[in-house]
Amino acid sequence: MTTTLRRSPIATTLLLLGAAYCLLPVLWVLIASSKSSAELFSTFTLAPSTHLFDNFADLAGYRDGLYWRWMGNTVVYAGAGAAVSTLISAMAGYALAKFDFRGKATVFNIILAGVLVPGVILAIPQYLLLAKLGMTNTYWAVLLPSFISPYGIYLARIFAAAAVPTEILEASRIDGSGEWRTFGTVVLPMMRTGLVTVFLFQFVAIWNNFMLPYIMLGDDRLYPLTVGLNGLLNQGANQPSMYTSVVTGALVSIIPLIALFLTLQRYWQVDLAAGGVKA
Amino acid sequence: MSLTTTAPTRTAAPPAAAPRRRAGRKAGTPYAFLAPALILFTAFLAAPIVYAGYLSLRKVKVSGLGLGAKSRTEIWAGFENYARSLSDPDFLPSVYRVGAYGLIVVPAMLGLALLFALLLDANRTRESIGKFARISIFLPYAVPAVVASLLWGFLYLPRVSPINDAIEALGFTAPNLLSTDLTLWAVANIAVWGGTGFNMIVIYTALRAVPTSLYESARIDGASELAIAWRIKIPIVMPSLVMTFVFSLIATLQVFAEPMTLRPLANTISTTWTPLMKVYRDAFARNDLYAAAATSVIIALATFILSFGFLKLVGRRAFNQED
Prior knowledge:
Shape of chain A: globular
InterPro entries (chain B): MetI-like, MetI-like_sf, UgpAE/MalFG_permease
Number of helices of chain A: 14
CATH topology of chain A: MetI-like fold
CATH class of the largest domain in chain B: Mainly Alpha
Subcellular location (chain B): Cell membrane
Main location (chain B): membrane
Mean pLDDT of chain B: 84
Domain ABC transmembrane type-1 (chain B): 95-310
Keywords (chain B): Cell membrane, Membrane, Transmembrane, Transmembrane helix, Transport
Oligomer: heterodimer
């Protein structure tokens, strides 16, 4: 960069205003978690109080630690769902990028069309089909639909085409390595950076999902955080003392993802149009 | 429709790198790698779509007194469910509401995302401030829509809102954001808050891929930063803007989690506030799966027409199929 760039107070002000707007609710939930239920609606909004640990204890004790179960469920749904989805996407993307076979163009076009399918049309028939198999209200009802991600396959195809040289595959085959071994020991390590991005995308999508688990699950011990917190808020309407647990629960629920974001920042450089990541 | 036009030549590898096919390589291998994806795609995407289409054309016929299992039979309904869905007094208002919501959310969110990305890229502020702003603006992406709605929902309550405090301190009457007139804006704000950062990162990534020498020569020619942004940077990030627009459009038409979460705090949000909420009510509160299926098919078709129509309008493929 040359010295032609001057610092601009307007640019700085606009960026800081944007940051303030984005941080305001997060700042509020931090402060509000420290208030007792009487203070929540009476003291000045941004004035902290001293009840943070009481509120944590209330939340942790709510129906024998149901909240921690929701947290654990969310980790299972997002973690296992994203891991399996990434592996399936990697296999499919690799096949589409590195093999010639009949029907390849058709398969790829169908998967691309799948990216643009609005989830709305899927939710109710998915529920009905799983209900016929007796699988609604189980972990599988949320996990199975999360395993398929057309966008993940699309990204994985691009990563495989860019990161896996054909010569190395040929060399591996000449050495007598089977196709699955080649995939496991040569292809997957080469696609690693891109696959982390596919994993993160799917992880966040499942972590933030509301409609699918809301429709599929009836038993509140299977709920993820989003559905659980929604239920707590509904109880608060009749029982205002619940609001402190709702607010504290909201704070605790966003800590893991924020930590994940801050540590894996470099994987969040997404180029939607080219489908790539520039890590 | 651009999505279906893959040039057949591309599947053939360039001659120089043509793989020497060895006898040991089995033709079934790519299908084996694709199998799990195709099975799941069929089970959880294709089958539900077909099933929704089928249900939307069916209805239950009640015979006799309607008692006993045999008295209720499913028969073909033609387009009856569609007619019923379209003439439902709750349907059109929800469509208008989501239309207005989209007209607020998509331009505001993408406009802010573009503005912040350009400001970050122009690098005219201290690096530490740029980094702080980038992380802060991206942070809401880590907050699920349910939690975001919950946080903003409390902040909208007149007894809690610091903005109301500030307005009243100045001697004005603060508006109630959860009143009938303003609820739409209150929900739109949550979506803008949650989506700006992700789109900003997408656009910023595209900007960073441009060699700075391109701007240097424009600066030497005396172009202002504004002119560089308008004439060089925005055209360069246009493909990213098109894709963020399409994805935002699809997400907007399906708005569900935000109004569902705000409902306990705002009695101005009805059970059919958005088309998707109507689908949910019909399916689960009224047990009318057929109307729900017809409405979801209508929403899906509208989404497809809008997103493909837009892509056709700007003359773009949905995805970059070259690599």
